[in-house]
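Help wanted!
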Amino acid sequence: MIYLEGSLLHFRDLLELVSFHLVSRDILPHLLRIPDALRLLHKPELDAVAALGMKFWTMPLKPDDGLGSAEVEEGPVGLDGAPSKSRQAVCSVRITSEDEALCIINPLFVSVHSDASWLDLASSLRRSSSTRGTLRFPNGLGTPQKSGSVKAASRKQGARGSLDHPESPEEEEEEEMEKGDPLLRSTTARRRPLHRSLACSSLEAASEELPLSPDLHLKEIKSPHRVSWIEGIPTTPPPAWPLQKSSSESSLLSENILLPPIPELDSLSVSSVEDETEGLLAAAAAQQKKQRRSSSALSYKVFQRLSAVGSTLSGFLSAERRVSKRVQELAQEPSSYVGGLVQSFVGHILRGAGKRHATSTDLLQEIRQMISNLKGYLCESSELHVVCEQSEAEEMDLGSVVEAALYKCMLKPLRNSIYAQLHEFHAHNGTLDKLREHQATMRRQSLAELGVTAGVPDAAALERIQAKLNLMHQAYSPKKKEAHMLKACKMLYEAMNQAAGGTEPFGADDFLPVLIYMLVNCDVVSVQLDVEYMMELMDPSQLLGEGGYYLTTWFGALFHIENFQPAATVTRQISIEAQRSIHQWHRRRTIHHHHANRRHSQNILYVSFCEPFNNQKTISVPPDMTTASVCAVCAEKYGVSDPESHGLFLVSHGSSLLLAGDSCPQRLRSETLQTQGGLGSFVYKPKDKGLPATAAPPSISNPDRSTEVQEPLKSKDTGQPD
Amino acid sequence: MAASAATSGAGGGAAGGGRSFSFKVVLLGEGCVGKTSLVLRYCENKFNDKHITTLQASFLTKKLNIGGKRVNLAIWDTAGQERFHALGPIYYRDSNGAILVYDITDEDSFQKVKNWVKELRKMLGNEICLCIVGNKIDLDKERHVSIQEAETYAESVGAKHYHTSAKQNKGIEELFLDLCKRMIETAQVDERARGNGSSQSGTARRGVQIIDDEPAAQTSGGCCSSG
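Answered by r_m:
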């Protein structure tokens, strides 16, 4: 006999208990399925299952004997989901309790009807099912049920959005593990004290839980306990939904249909919804992020949620949603220009485009390029104007809305394939081996040897950080990955601060060693791939701020680990490859940015007078401007009365080279840069001043410099040692 | 789109009719010379909830208005330990300015600054505005780097020299204000150069060949040349 705490309703087994609640209390538009393993179990066996903890969910489920699957058909039936075909959980159900009400919520449903309307919708849905309704709320506690549901939804949202609260790993795993509230309470009015609830007994993980919301009844205990699973991918929106919102909600479903299914937990619709909501309800999300996860936060979040809905209706946000939805529609329509491109490109990458590329960077660049091109096209084209007024487009950040939508259309289906290809690249070139090897070495080092001067995260904190890193790894959106990375940074700072008693903020001197310590104690290989993924795929213009800084720092830390030398020998020079990669990254970052005028600083020439760096002037010199013209400008700038006797010299490494009148300093400069990496200074000075000879032959007299000016220009450069 | 892009000019980018600039400034110097305190002092009252700023001083931002020009500074701190020296380039790449800090009581730290200058000039040429900063002037009694020497050196490499005390909040405002003005000047020269319509980005810059996406840069160069 099992029963819920406080409930008079007894059941023979878990199946019955869950089934009852599913039938009587729910609003589920989808098929539910209880893991077979749970069906036959009674108390002792359940305890055994409980002892398995998390492992239970990763254990292969044995197809059962002739009993068939324990499906409870819920909600509008008629899905052709072929329930037994796939055991992949597409959606799961959470049981949560709040005051007297028990609610079992299908997260998909919550996500789809993420606004208030679903609450009203719920009753009609309930009625649509012949099997339930009668048992519902024997005590008439309708309202708590509703608020409870909303809380559950917003709680989820909160967990996702709260930036500044260290969250427990369990909590973070929500994407993967839907939680069941162990304190299931019956809806019956009568209660009685009792022994542990069934669910509770199976929750080993509960003890690891951080103290969370002190909210009396909503005592959340996280567990890997998945109450029931819904099998199969919904192929059609349940016909019973009376509301078709104009927002992107239906796209959630259709996306699952039209795009290649992603065999990762990330495709649990909740995560993607959060994703979307986070992106679109930027304002609300930002507010929520600030919101501490406290007891009051829960009800606050309900309010937040509702007010977010309010703003959606008020138009501005819905414009973003419309755009996002439109982009996704276009991408899924093979006959449209965008759709054709997206689908063939996705197919192309999925078929292993990496093999055509020499490096992982090239592969990622190809993808980024495609995203940038599509984004540029969509932002300019009329395709989006259909759904959004010009004024609206100006008001919102169209670029980032389109960018986010494109992540969804392209990176979501591609993520796994990209990772597999990245992994292959790095397994081949030995990066991963080096990382693993040095990770092992560095783990054995003391904090002092690692150069750590501040506090480091303890085992528990490391575990939380690892959980954050796991989320970072799972995410497909580079933007979202970045957010997780920043959270991990924050957790590191918190650990450092805790040890220091929270005095001064820490700078890079303190942070970098701690970051390295953290990385060698975590899954450094995944992080390596993630950092590369972010660096290359993120919208380059997004990398200018904090995210760009920390991404750079993570890149640096990984570089340090990869090139770690246990002896005191210091890697003085960053490798050519690393430099190249960094450069490419920065280059794209600026190239894609319309205001990257640093790009054009190559038209600037710095010229000094008589001596390097003396009285330096900046002169605008286009690539094809000749030395003679530059000299004319210099003569004017420096007020030289006898320009004929002056010339432009390239001074480097203690030697100076007189430039021929028909050479082009700007080209010479780039050539020098390319061949030498270094750069000399351009000096305007008298031709004979301090020089042993003037008008040297038009060849390069100094063999030393033959590399500098090797055959570059038509110029007949004249060189003279200083 | 256009509007939003305009407010977030890239490194050194001038946007919004040339009245708004975004600059990246990198902080270099040995550990313990006080570079973190320096920048913290400067940005002190600008803690921003949006960032994880309140816990850290590795990345700070500051907005200022200089003669009607809006300037957004992003200040990148670097780890000064010798073992991380090799990571320098990934931080100072594309910086508009560099602040090289030494401790006036520590001769070695001044030597480190000289090394950085050499490296920066080699890697970035003259396109980066250099500031050499002697910090801890509150400890002038223990000075080991002569003012004369430092200033002469700075001049010889085309850098500006400043004296600061993070502890007493001396010289810091001036340092940043001056740096900003110089960076604006450089950016404006840049801008004018583009305005000439002679912009051609086909050439390589900083030692790396630009291949694939150059056309994008060209078109965008054209569109913002009015700025």
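OP: Thanks! One thing I noticed: The first strand of chain A starts at residue 2 and ends at 3.
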